[in-house]
Amino acid sequence: MKPAIFISVLASVLAVAAAPRGMAQVNYPSRAAQIVVPFPPGGNTDILTRVMADQYSTALKEPFTVVNKPGAGANIGAAFVANSDADGYTLLMAPPATHAVNAYLYNTLPFDMEKSFAPITMVARFPNVLVVHPSIGVKSVEELIAKAKAEPGKIDFATSGVGSTSHLCISLFMAMAGIEMNHIPYKGTSQSLHDVITGRVPVMIDNLGPILPHIQSGALIAIGVSTAEPVSLLPGVPPVGAVVKGYQASSWNALSVPAKTPREIVTKLSTEANAILRKPDVIEKFRAVGSEPVGGTPEDVEKFFAEERVRWKQAVDVAKLQKM
User: Fold this and answer.
1) Rounded to an integer, what distance in angstroms lies between the CA atom of residue 145 and that of residue 148?
2) Rounded (5°) CA angle 113-114-118
3) Residue 318 — very low, low, confident or very high, per pLDDT cuts 50/70/90?
4) Between vectors from CA 162 to CA 324 and to CA 42, what angle results, nearest 5°?
5) What percent of the chain has a predicted confidence (pLDDT) above 70?
6) For residues 130 and 225, is the Cβ–Cβ distance under 8 A?
7) β-pairing, 128-132 with 64-68?
8) The predicted structure's pLDDT at residue 66
9) Distance of CA 35 to CAs 19, 85, 279, Å?
10) 244-271: per-residue pLDDT in tens?
């Protein structure tokens, strides 16, 4: 072998040997990837994830599939991702529960809320909406509070699971309004919403997206939104905070991967996600279900997570929820 060729080959070998373990493939992705949703199909997180998966598949020319792994307040899905290979082929569509809430609700977690994940980008923010079934006979936040005070502990409310944001949002509402209702937990929004629509359980607070069609059809009555300002998709529906002063509790979704995923992969996924979230058709699909696309760098998301942990810990403390 000629000296020049030998030196070139040797340099290539040394470069590969020196590369960090799990170094990003030059042509990432080179096979199918999955985005884990820690809830059952049908909820707001699931809807947005399927939009992102379709867009990633087109942009990166490899399939991105959605895998639902619900249970334990989103901990099962989050733990699955945290313990997956850090190679960019397993992503998590994270709700507040997995990155900002559950450490304050559970004595132990199968992952570290602050250290097990590397953020990619903030996907969306969306309001929660307080709805009632017509059979309960109330049409406003004031009327619901009055009825709950007259019948303490007798009104049932549904949530998407113990420790979920829907559970925390309504617990905070009850604590701040000085009322008591009876918790009926489910394994996701699609299941809890079904029983509220049928009137089996008359009250819930959850993400606007999957509930909106049932408000529009008249099956459910929207009496308040969780945001500080009214929501354009629900004209005439006031913020809960207009009655319960200081109340505010919105939701969001962010993409993340296992913490040791190579920086090159994180950057590529973040860059593509931000491009996707600027597309007019994606914006239209998000807004149709009451969600606002966000975007941002991994550093932006990490800063946001830190702020959210402070806010949600305060919410847990105010609601006086016991650790599980």
Assistant:
1) 5
2) 100
3) confident
4) 145
5) 92
6) yes
7) unpaired
8) 98
9) 27, 13, 20
10) 998 988 889 999 999 999 999 999 999 9
Confidence bin at 72 (pLDDT 50/70/90): confident
- Range 72-90 average pLDDT: 96
Helix axes 141-150, 165-177, angle to 10 degrees: 70
Query: What are the E-state strand segments in the chain?
Result: 33-37, 64-68, 90-94, 117-126, 128-132, 156-159, 182-185, 203-207, 221-225, 251-258, 292-293
Position 25 confidence tier, pLDDT thresholds 50, 70, 90? very low
Q: Round to whole Å and give the CA distance between 230 and 74.
A: 28
CB 223 within 8 A of CB 130: yes
Q: What is d(CA 75, CA 39) in angstroms, rounded to the nearest whole number? A: 10
* DSSP3 helix / strand / coil % (the chain, rounded to 5): 45, 20, 35
In terms of DSSP bridges, do strands 90-94 and 33-37 run parallel, antiparallel, or are they unpaired?
A: parallel
Distances (CA, A) of 301 to 54, 270, 306, 308, 311: 23, 11, 9, 10, 15
For the purposes of burial, counting CB atoms within 10 Å of the CB of 54, is it exposed (0-12), middle (13-18) or buried (19 or more)?
A: middle
What is the Cα 104 distance to its own chain's centre? 17
Q: Verify cis geometry, omega within 30 degrees of 0, for the bond prior to 29.
A: yes
- Position 71 scores a pLDDT of 87
Task: Name residue 24's amino acid.
Answer: A
From 164, 159, 132, 162, select the one nearest 148 (Cα to Cα). Answer: 132
Q: What is the predicted pLDDT for the residue at 26?
A: 56
> Would you state the torsion angle of the CA atoms of residues 78, 290, 273, 34, taken in this order, to the nearest 10 degrees?
40
